[in-house]
Automatic annotation (TrEMBL):
<keyword id="KW-0285">Flavoprotein</keyword>
<feature type="active site" description="Proton acceptor">
    <location>
        <position position="579"/>
    </location>
</feature>
<keyword id="KW-0560">Oxidoreductase</keyword>
<feature type="binding site">
    <location>
        <position position="88"/>
    </location>
    <ligand>
        <name>FAD</name>
    </ligand>
</feature>
<keyword id="KW-0732">Signal</keyword>
<feature type="binding site">
    <location>
        <begin position="535"/>
        <end position="536"/>
    </location>
    <ligand>
        <name>FAD</name>
    </ligand>
</feature>
<feature type="binding site">
    <location>
        <position position="235"/>
    </location>
    <ligand>
        <name>FAD</name>
    </ligand>
</feature>
<keyword id="KW-0274">FAD</keyword>
<feature type="active site" description="Proton donor">
    <location>
        <position position="536"/>
    </location>
</feature>
<dbReference type="InterPro" id="IPR007867">
    <property type="entry name" value="GMC_OxRtase_C"/>
</dbReference>
<dbReference type="GO" id="GO:0050660">
    <property type="term" value="F:flavin adenine dinucleotide binding"/>
</dbReference>
<dbReference type="InterPro" id="IPR000172">
    <property type="entry name" value="GMC_OxRdtase_N"/>
</dbReference>
<dbReference type="InterPro" id="IPR036188">
    <property type="entry name" value="FAD/NAD-bd_sf"/>
</dbReference>
<dbReference type="Pfam" id="PF05199">
    <property type="entry name" value="GMC_oxred_C"/>
</dbReference>
<dbReference type="GO" id="GO:0016614">
    <property type="term" value="F:oxidoreductase activity, acting on CH-OH group of donors"/>
</dbReference>
<protein>
    <submittedName>
        <fullName>Alcohol oxidase</fullName>
    </submittedName>
</protein>
<dbReference type="InterPro" id="IPR012132">
    <property type="entry name" value="GMC_OxRdtase"/>
</dbReference>
Amino acid sequence: GRTAYDHIIVGGGSAGLVLAERLSRDPTVSVAVLEAGSLTEQNRTLIPALYSGFIWDPEIDWRFTTVPQKHVSDNVLLLPRGKTLGGTAAVNGMYFVRAAKNEYDAWETLGNPGWNWDTVNANIKALENFIPASSKDAKTFHATDSASNHGKGGPIEVTYSTYWEPAPLIPAYFSSFNALGIPTNKHASGGDTIGVWQAPCAIDAENRSRSYAVNTFLHPNDRRENLHIITGAHVTRTILADEQLSKAGDVRAVGVQYIADNETRSIHVTERGHVVITAGTYQTPKLLELSGIGNASILKEKGITARVDLPAVGENLQDHVGVLSCFELKDGLGPSVGALNVDSEYTAQQWELYTEERKGALASVHGTTVAMIPFQKIIKADTWTTLKASLDKSLQQFRGTPYEKQIALQRSQLDDESIPQIEFVLLPMLADPTVKAEPNRSYITIGTVLLRPFARGSVHLESDDPLKHPLIDPNYLGITEFETAVMTEALKFVAESLTQTKPLSTLIAAQLSPPSGSSHAELEAFVQQRAFSVWHPAGSASMLPKEEGGVVDPQLKVYGTENLHVADASIIPLQIGTHTMATVYANALRAGEIIEKIYHDAADVNKDTEDSQQKPIHVEL
Ligand SMILES: Cc1cc2nc3c(=O)[nH]c(=O)nc-3n(C[C@H](O)[C@H](O)[C@H](O)COP(=O)(O)OP(=O)(O)OC[C@H]3O[C@@H](n4cnc5c(N)ncnc54)[C@H](O)[C@@H]3O)c2cc1C
């Protein structure tokens, strides 16, 4: 096969495939994607593995774990990530949602011109084909948003769930929030995410299957000739030219090395070409480090020669963290999706409905009802004042670090009530694996998610063995006093306010976990024992000024390199208070525009200096 490409994309995941599509639109440009996993179509039904007790399909999961989490009882937590073409978008919960306007605008404030709500939202719209819910679902289950907030004609099909059993539950959830002063939001994709609303998902409205790169724009049957997708290819490093060729002393990526069929192979980029890493938040830093780009002292420890000393690689890791509250519902509400795999009659019925009519429980994502709110709405004013004082004390640890500026900005956002800090997601099932479900009973779980953690974690390579998993330390609840306290307050809000308020209260028989009547101290202990990853890691190769913890510049180029870029969730410099997929897609689309422009601009320069001698490039393989 071919051995040189204009652009090599490392990782055929959520970002990688959007980028591949964008860069291969020009048929004269050759693009290769290297993906460690294989092609597995994850579109049989819309029930993600999530609902079988947070256990992932080992065939298509990297099965990462954290290092013991100091502030979560030293627990080692599971971190699922898709290992298949399509990446984590092939296995995730499918929510297709935007953050609040001010959260994206903060990226620009942090030193990234052109990265703001307008551009991110325009790119999300470009990728989207939005189909509204039926008027009944819009009215009864609040599955509604202004059509003008959404895109039409893009490759990712976006619509709402259609299965809402038990029917009284969702309207009651909305009404109880409303009664507590939290409004229903009918425009949550327009830059204001505050309130209670129904999340649209990446679902094909016609055949009710998962919509993602593999079954839309990159279906193997109509793939472009200039786009080569190589699966089963585990990239081990970027090959850097021996000499620093450019005047600025930047290193040049000349290709990548990978293992396929137990053999080490390599492919190269053409003279003006680029290598773009989209291996995800946990593996992108590892690949940079394996290539000699990272914190020189960490590299030295692992026996790797540093080519670019870039201490921010693998730092600034930010992830959402959550805890669950579970309740048993009263009799007579009828079966819900929680009965799948428990009640054999219901299960058989739902399979038939799905196979024959694309309807029923299997045709929907469950648990798309969310409330996103600032802390001020759930924490009493005097408690909030005390908590903020404790936070300010803890945040002094960032003084004099590269992250001082972003932490100060994030701190100021606590007073911006257009930015959500906490999410309450309603799952119509028992999602706590430690509670045993009784047959013929219905349950709900309310997930509480910390959306804007102040804790910063890190991810680094464990050794120079490229096949070893990275050491992942998300540092959950790392700003311990404050973050544990706000999560405790949130659990208290669920137990003592939300589920005690009519009409939701009239549907609930009992609280199961945390145990009903738990004291403040018991709830706090519950948070410390049960906190888990809500799967949105970002920031480990942040787009920031170099001296402020940056790994890539606003062109997504890795500092100290000429043509090496990063374009996945790891570039997000400051975590957003929502689910990350649509944003990751949008950023990858913008990355494609940027890299295409750099490529063409270089062509024009080359034309001007046609007879100037090109230095040969030495490659060590
Ligand atoms: C369980 C779960 C549920 C989620 N639910 C939602 C949701 O409902 N809505 C939402 O918005 N977000 C959700 N997310 C988050 C969202 O899916 C991610 O933010 C997004 O998919 C990340 O995209 P990415 O391109 O950065 O990484 P990925 O999509 O993970 O892509 C990385 C790719 O690189 C490949 N790769 C890695 N290393 C190598 C290597 N060395 N060589 C070759 N290939 C390599 C991987 O196999 C993978 O295909 C969820 C995440 C999880 C884990």
